[in-house]
Every structure is written in C-alpha cells, then in structure tokens.
Amino acid sequence: MRAIRARHPELESAVDLHLELLELQRRVQSRLSLPWIPISPEVVQQRLAEAKPLLRFEDVSFEVSDLRLMVRQTADVLRRFGALEEADFQKVQALGRDANLMDATARWYRKAFEQRAAPVGVPAATTPGATTDESAIDSVLGLAMRPFLSRCAEVLQQRPELSQWTHPHCAMCGGEPDFAFITPSAERQLICGRCGLRWKWKGLACPYCGNDNRDQITSFATPDGQYRLSGCDVCHRYLKAYDGRHASRPLMPVVDAVATLPLDAVAMQRGYSS
Predict the structure, then answer these.
(1) What is the pTM for the complete model shown?
(2) How far, in Å, CA of 178 to CA of 193, rounded?
C-alpha cells in the first residue's frame, strides 16, 4: 500500500486511511484465536439448500469490550480523515458506550441478508428500535466487526460444502460481494465485503441482479491486465476483480481495493454505482 501511495500521490489520503484501519483491525485480529463453530454437516446442507448464511450472529465469538474499542477507534480514524461527519461521529461514539451495542450490531449483521432475501417490491422486515437512517453507523459497524468475522471466515472457508454454494450473497454472513478474483484457471470467485469469504460464481453474470446477458455487461481491464471491472447495464452496478491469470503476486483484497480506486471513478463516470 505504501508503494501504491508513492506511485499515485492523488491516492495518498485514501491509502493512509486504509493503512490506519488495517493496522487497527490487525491488532485486534491478532489477539483472537480461531473460533469453534459447531455446525454439523446436516445443518450446513440444509442452509445451503435454503440459501441461508451458515453463521448466525450468536455464533460469532468476541468480547463486548473488544467491540466497543473497535467501534470507537474506527470512528476516530474515519473522523480524522473526513470520512465521517461530526454528527455521525457523536452518534457512533454514543453507541460505543451504549448498553444496547450488541443488539444494534446484531441488527446490522442480520439486515444484509434480510434485505437481499426480501421479494422484489417488498421491504425487508425491520427490528423494533432500528432507525431509518443508519448508513454511517452501518459503515462503522462493518469495519469494526471485520476482525471477528474474518476469523470466522478462516474457519468456514475450509468447509468442503462451500463448493456447492451458488448464490450471490456470502455463504457465511449473507453480505454482498465487493470484489472478485479471477483464478489462474479462469474461475471467478466473489469476495464478501464484510468477512472476506470467497465462493465460486458463474462466469460474467451480475451478482447483484443475476443478469447474464453478455450484451448487457460492460467489461474492461487496466492497461497492465491486472484488474478488471464488470458493469451491469440492467441494475447499473459494477464489480472490480483481481485477474490472477496475469498476476505476479497473490490476491490482497485490502491493497487491491485501494489500488483500483481509479477504476471506481471511471465506473461512476459511466453511470455505474458500487
């Protein structure tokens, strides 16, 4: 990431922000042991068949004191870099001290899957006490929970049953993909934006709306062929990917997300959204 900052001075602030967040997350994650997640093969098969995430919020092992620390310090970093408004910063700080922090985090965790599972035109069920505008808090909780969910993903990534998962949301937590990986054998894998779990996905099909009409999918690569971007002309969303067929190093999701920020600008100029 420091090399990216040296090559692209215009990304200096974004790189510094991600470096601080990464260091914070790594400090906490390094203290966490691999969790024991008692999910039987029968339960796994049932949840796979029902397209339901494998990991319930209750299965995530962490101390509330560690979560409070992550929430407050994540908010501090975002505020210092201008990525969090003062009013939202104060709300997050208050939440970090609130006795209902675990309840709010549980709502955030379940909301991703509930929204994706709701039929078209039918709003997802809401939990009593949830506010209507929680985007800033959701962003902070997503970053604060990453060390704990990443540890769980390390365990569940080894389950052989994951090869049967064919759904567009994460098999572990129900989150959306925010990056992809094209393997050296040209297999496409989606990467969850919340926990980092990877799973196979079908060709160029859009993971957000299911469109698989190649005439309605715009795809282009960086000049060096290291990264690709696919934009859907149906739902107008896009997904970036690291192309392992032209790679000199392994995939590094955090680094690659920052390195491809110029691609985000191009996609938005063309009318796509993330």
Answers:
(1) 0.88
(2) 5
What token pair was written down for 120? 């078209």
DSSP-derived letter for residue 119 is P
- Structural contact between residues 209 and 237, judged by C-beta atoms closer than 8 angstroms: yes
Tokens of 119: 């039929």
Single out the residue of 164, 154, 126 nearest to residue 50, CA to CA.
164
Residue tagged 């997640």 (tokens): 37
Contact assessment for residue 200 and residue 163, using Cβ atoms and an 8 Å cutoff: yes
CB atoms < 10 A from the CB of 71, how many?
25
pLDDT tens digits, 70-120 = 999 999 999 999 999 999 999 999 999 999 999 999 999 999 777 766 544
Query: How remote is the C-alpha of 217 from its chain's centroid?
Result: 22
Tokens for 245, please give them.
């067929």
Which tens digits make up the pLDDT trace of 232-249? 999 999 999 999 997 888
The rounded distance, in Å, linking the Cα atoms of 126 and 238 is 27
Distance of CA 24 to the CA centre of its chain: 17
Q: Which residue type is seen at 91?
A: K
Tell me whether residue 201 is exposed, middle or buried, using C-beta atoms within 10 angstroms of its C-beta: 0 to 12, 13 to 18, 19 or more: buried
What is the separation, in whole angstroms, between the first and last Cα of the chain?
A: 22
Packing angle of the helix pair 64-80, 86-97 (nearest 10 deg): 170
Rounded distance, CA 210 to CA 237, Å? 11
Which residue in 193, 203, 198, 220 sits closest to 274, CA to CA? 193
Helix intervals (H) in the chain: 2-7, 12-29, 41-49, 64-80, 86-97, 101-117, 135-144, 146-156, 253-259, 261-269
Paired strand residues for 220: 229
